[in-house]
Design goal:
Helix content: 55-70%
Number of domains: 1
Radius of gyration: 21 Å
Largest sheet: 7 strands, mixed
CATH class: Alpha Beta
Strand order of the largest sheet: 3-4-5-2-1-7-6
Shape: globular
Distance between the termini: 39 Å
Low-confidence stretches: none
Strand content: 5-15%
Mean pLDDT: 90
Length: 356
């Protein structure tokens, strides 16, 4: 694979000093496709590089930062509304991914823009939570009866809920992987270890180590990688932040991954944050505790080193399309056995298309 400009800048922001305007144009395009444009602004600001950026690309970076800042304000307010809605039930919403990073003021939150707010609640309270949210204006929308049944029977979340006035979307989870997934991390263990982010609202998030594992699980069990590089940047930021807080982080991370049956996604998270972004990971844990053959590792490298790049023509080679397709198939295979997967994909590919 040829070097990707955005990845080079993420690894060494100082390189931006020597970029031509043509290269700046390419960098902006790659970052926008990866939803990392506002993140780039933050990185440049932290490295005192803003003054070195030419006027034209800086306009794009400033615009992305302003959008991200407004988004953060809106998300904070929406999280507060969710907490208020659920307050009397005694269910403290546990935030996932982007919302958790933002409310917890963790490094991945800077410049992070996302489409919905993800929460997880105990499965035994799921119906109650859905009813309460419905009374406060959130309801499922725009989904066929088949898709609704698919979510409720097989998935790790109920159909997305959209507020009738604000149009904001909540994804309510009861586990982190589908019911049909080969790996079944214990939701009870994850929920029991959750930590409070805001005493006023009572909202929580996964414990730091579980947050890393969920981020790895989310990325490497997925079949679509449109924002794969953004999610890898999140992992890099989480690993860097949490490992700086205590010497036991890496051993605790390995032990927890083993306990939750998530060694495989952790293996990939450590491998590709190190290989692509240069994340500092001790050699003793860089293998993630999962053995794999040389040929198998090289094969997965050939897929992920393409799939995790920006979805932009400048980042593609002759094999990128097939690599992304194989990762799509792999993701679905990991999440659902063939006896269920094949009929589902056939229906989505043909039956639903004929209806539309």
């Amino acid at each position: 694979m040829p070097p990707v400009l955005l990845v080079n800048i993420l690894r060494n922001p100082e390189l931006c000093r020597s970029l031509s305007l043509r290269e700046w144009d390419l960098l902006i395009r790659q970052a926008r496709r990866s939803e990392l444009l506002a993140r780039l602004h933050h990185i440049f600001a932290c490295n005192e590089l803003i003054e070195t950026i030419p006027e034209a690309p800086l306009l794009h970076l400033d615009s992305a930062r302003l959008i991200a800042d407004r988004h953060a304000v809106a998300v904070r307010w929406e999280v507060k509304q969710i907490a208020i809605a659920l307050h009397d039930s005694g269910v403290a919403p546990i935030l996932l991914k982007g919302a958790a990073y933002l409310i917890g003021e963790l490094p991945p939150c800077f410049g992070r823009v996302f489409n919905d707010i993800d929460i997880i609640v105990p499965v035994e309270r799921l119906g109650e939570v859905e009813s309460i949210l419905f009374l406060h204006g959130w309801a499922s929308y725009g989904m066929s009866d088949y898709d609704k049944e698919y979510y409720r029977r097989w998935m790790h979340e109920i159909p997305p809920l959209r507020h009738v006035k604000r149009k904001t979307v909540i994804d309510v989870h009861h586990r982190i992987l589908p019911r049909t997934s080969r790996s079944q991390p214990s939701s009870d263990k994850l929920l029991a270890a959750a930590v409070t982010l805001d005493e006023k609202t009572g909202v929580k998030a996964f414990a730091p180590i579980d947050m890393v594992l969920h981020s790895a699980c989310h990325l490497f069990y997925e079949g679509e990688f449109d924002h794969g590089l953004r999610d890898l940047v999140d992992l890099d930021a989480l690993l860097t932040e949490f490992s700086s807080r205590g010497d036991s982080f890496w051993s605790d991370l390995m032990d927890r991954a083993d306990e939750l049956e998530l060694l495989r996604p952790l293996f990939y998270a450590l491998r590709y944050t190190r290989d692509i972004l240069g994340t500092s990971i001790p050699g003793s844990v860089s293998g993630g505790g999962v053995g794999t053959s040389f040929i198998g590792a090289r094969w997965m490298d050939s897929l992920f080193h393409r799939g995790l790049m920006p979805d932009h023509a400048s980042c593609n080679d002759s094999f990128t399309g097939i690599a992304r397709w194989l990762l799509f198939v792999r993701g679905h295979y990991l999440r659902m056995p063939l006896r269920l997967l094949v009929p589902h994909l056939v229906r989505k590919a043909f039956v639903e298309d004929m209806k539309s």
